[in-house]
Structure formats: structure tokens, C-alpha cells
Amino acid sequence: MRMPEGAGEVTILVPGKLHPHAVSRIGEHFKVVELERADPALLTEEMKQDIVGIASSETISADFIDALPRLQIIANFGVGYDAVDAVHAGKKGVMVTNTPDVLTEEVADTTIGLLINTVRELPKAEAYLRAGRWRSEGAYPYTRATLRARSVGIFGMGRIGRAIARRVEAFGLPVSYHNRREVADLPYAYFPSLLALAEAVDTLICVAPGGAGTAKAVNAQVLRALGPNGVFINVGRGSSVDEEALVAALRDGAILAAGLDVFADEPNVPEALLGCENACLLPHVASASVHTRQAMAELVAENLFAWFSRGEALTPVAETVHVRAKA
Ligand code: NAP
Ligand code: 8YV
């Protein structure tokens, strides 16, 4: 990378924890300032004057953006950027970038793993073996659920949704989906509402973004529509689900099982969900391999390099595509 004159003056704030590869790559070209969290009250006057970029996987609020008068870019670690007030950033002329594509196949792989674990109870079967119960009690009971004869609906047929759909097709299962807009080049059935999709399938995979547009979209009615053989998988965002309704549906048999990688208030998983035997729970690991997290970290740094060396963002989010670098 060729940096312009004075590029050494560029100060990038890293609030909270960030992947170490991102921090060290950014530090090769810019001054890195670390802060406990993205809280305006923690900013010194010097920080307010110096900071022109943020690299983060934290919540970045409108107040925090407003507290940094020279801020030009927020490079989010993760494709989902619901924790960043991107609308406000766009209004203030601040670019926001995310990390699409580099994690798509990994997240799709994990989703299929979570689906199979949920349906065929593999984590519970392994726990049974390790507890010596195979030897003492005999074979693990047959699973009530199977992937066979299932019909899969995808809520959020974007990059990751499509990668999941390709895998589901390879398992011989029909795929349909719901987005706000139908996707022109897809062979899958489109449903203009989430409820209509849930009524048509027995297995719902949520991989939609979080935020106001999807808040608690997967509610009691949607879950009930899946039916008593229903399986719900969430790798999108926990905010897209009414967790109380999900617990009720799991407890009273409105659906058969759920597999969740994401929760409304991470890392706090509700006790009621922990108590559901028919829920398979993962600690937000869908992209969490060394390989994929390294690629995400690299893309965070590359976005900052591209912005400060030639005024371009590699992967701008929709709300800030109009933002131009200041001359
Ligand atoms: P993407 O390509 O932007 O796809 C998102 C899809 O959701 C789009 O097809 C979009 O279609 C649809 N959508 C957006 N808002 C909607 C709404 N209100 N109602 C219905 N559909 C809506 O994003 P991606 O790369 O596939 O990533 C998707 C999400 O997965 C991320 O935002 C993130 O939350 C989650 N994720 C989770 C993990 C994890 O570790 N668990 C890892 C990566 C990503 P329309 O615009 O037509 O509605
Ligand atoms: C990240 C994710 O691990 O990309 C996303 O949207 O949810 C995960 O891949 C997470 O954002 C890290 O903060």
C-alpha cells in the first residue's frame, strides 16, 4: 500500500476488543488508540481532535459519532452492522464498512451443522456416550426429528442465505424464502411475508440482519405456523426473535426444536432457554474459525487503508454508499 504524505498522522480508535490481526495491521500504517468501550464520556480532548477512523465490533451510537468531529470512517468487524448507527453516520458524512463475503461459506457451513445437531441431537448423543450411558443403558434413543422430508424456508436470502440454500438443495430438500424484495435469478419459491413462508415450511432458518426492520419478526404466530414438527434455526441476530415466545413454543410443543447461534442480549442467554432440552445453543460461533476471522480482520484493515490512501471504501454499507472522502 502506498500512503500519502502525512498518513502517519492518521489516528484510528479501537474501542473494546478487536481481533489482534486487525489491530496489528492497522498499526503498521496508522496510530492506534485503544479505549475500554465506545463511550463518549471516556474520550479525552486530544482523542476528539485526533481520531479520524474507528475499527470495531462494538456498539457505535449516534452520540459517539457526534463526539468525534473529525471522524471519517467506521470499519465494522462483522458483516452485520446493526450495532453501528449507520443511518446517522450517513447523515454526518461518515463512511461505514463491514466484512461481507469473506465469511459467507463458513457461516453457511456452521448453519448446516447447527441444523443437523438440532434435528439429530448429536451434541446430546455425544454427551450420552461420554457419560458412560451407552455402556450402562444401551443405545441412544432414536431422534424424534429427521432432516428427511423437511421443507426449508430461509428468512434473509442474501449472500449467506444463498450459500445455505445451495447446501440445503444438496441434501435433497426444497427451499423457499422471504426477503422484502423477490430475488430475480433464484429458482426458489418467494413468499412476500414471513408468516406466509412459515405456513409453507416446517423448518425456518433466520439469517436476516438485525435492527428495527426485523425486530422480533419471528414471533409466536410465525413459530406456531411451522407446526408441531417445526424446527427454527437462527444464525442472523437474536433481536429478530421474540425469545419469550420461542421458549413458550419449545415448552408447549408448538414447535419441535430450535438451534440458536445468536441471542438478544449476548452473552446473556435466558435461563428459560438454557432449560429447554429441545434447544441446541451455540455461543455466536458461526464465523469463528481462525481462517475466517483472520480474513475478516484483514478486510477491516484494508477498508481503512483504501479510504485513507485513495478515498475509497472496499465494502461500504448501503446507508453510506453516498459518502465521499473529504478532499
Ligand atoms: P445480506 O447479503 O445483506 O443479506 C441479508 C438479506 O436479508 C437480504 O437478502 C435482504 O433482502 C434480507 N432482509 C433485510 N432486511 C429484511 C427485512 N426487514 N425483512 C426481510 N428480509 C430482509 O447479508 P449476509 O451477508 O447474508 O448476512 C446476513 C446477516 O447474517 C448479517 O446481517 C448478520 O446479522 C448475520 N450473520 C451472523 C453471523 C453469526 O456469526 N451468527 C455471521 C455472519 C452474519 P431485502 O433487502 O430484499 O429485504
Ligand atoms: C462476527 C457476525 O463474529 O459478521 C457478523 O455479522 O455476527 C459474526 O461474524 C461478529 O459480528 C463479531 O463481532
Task: Produce a short descriptive summary.
With 327 residues, the protein is α/β, with parallel strands linked by helices. The protein is built from 13 helices and 12 strands.
Keywords:
327 residues; alpha/beta; binds NADP nicotinamide-adenine-dinucleotide phosphate; binds 2-keto-D-gluconic acid
Topology:
Elements: E1 11-15, H1 20-29, E2 31-35, H2 45-50, E3 51-56, H3 62-66, E4 73-76, H4 86-91, E5 95-97, H5 104-120, H6 122-130, H7 133-137, E6 152-155, H8 159-170, E7 175-178, E8 189-190, H9 194-200, E9 203-206, H10 220-226, E10 231-234, H11 243-252, E11 257-260, H12 271-274, E12 279-281, H13 290-310
Parallel strand pairs: 1-2, 1-3, 3-4, 4-5, 6-7, 6-9, 7-8, 9-10, 10-11, 11-12
Helix pairs in contact: 1-13, 5-8, 9-10
The protein binds NADP nicotinamide-adenine-dinucleotide phosphate (NAP) and 2-keto-D-gluconic acid (8YV).
Structure notes:
The protein is α/β, with parallel strands linked by helices and 327 residues long. It folds into two domains: 7-100 and 290-320, NAD(P)-binding Rossmann-like Domain (Rossmann fold); 104-281, Rossmann fold, CATH 3.40.50.720. Helices cover 36% and strands 15% of the residues. It is built from 13 helices and twelve strands. Helix 5 (104-120) crosses helix 8. The model has no long low-confidence stretch (mean pLDDT 97). 2-keto-D-gluconic acid is lined by residues 57, 77-80, 103, 287.
Extract low-pLDDT stretches. Answer: none
Work out the number of β strands. Answer: 12
- The CATH topology annotation of the largest domain reads as Rossmann fold
Strand order of the largest sheet: 8-7-6-9-10-11-12
Q: How many separate domains make up the residues?
A: 2
**Tally of helical runs:** 13
Rounded to an integer in angstroms, the radius of gyration calculated over CA atoms is 22 Å
Order of helices and strands: EHEHEHEHEHHHEHEEHEHEHEHEH
Q: Largest sheet, described in full?
A: 7 strands, parallel
Query: In the CATH hierarchy, what is the class of the largest domain?
Result: Alpha Beta
Secondary-structure-derived class? alpha/beta
- Proportion of residues in extended strands: 5-15%
What is the share of helical residues? 25-40%
- Quick one: overall form? elongated
The overall pLDDT average reads 97
CATH architecture assignment name of the largest domain = 3-Layer(aba) Sandwich
CATH homologous superfamily classification of the largest domain: NAD(P)-binding Rossmann-like Domain
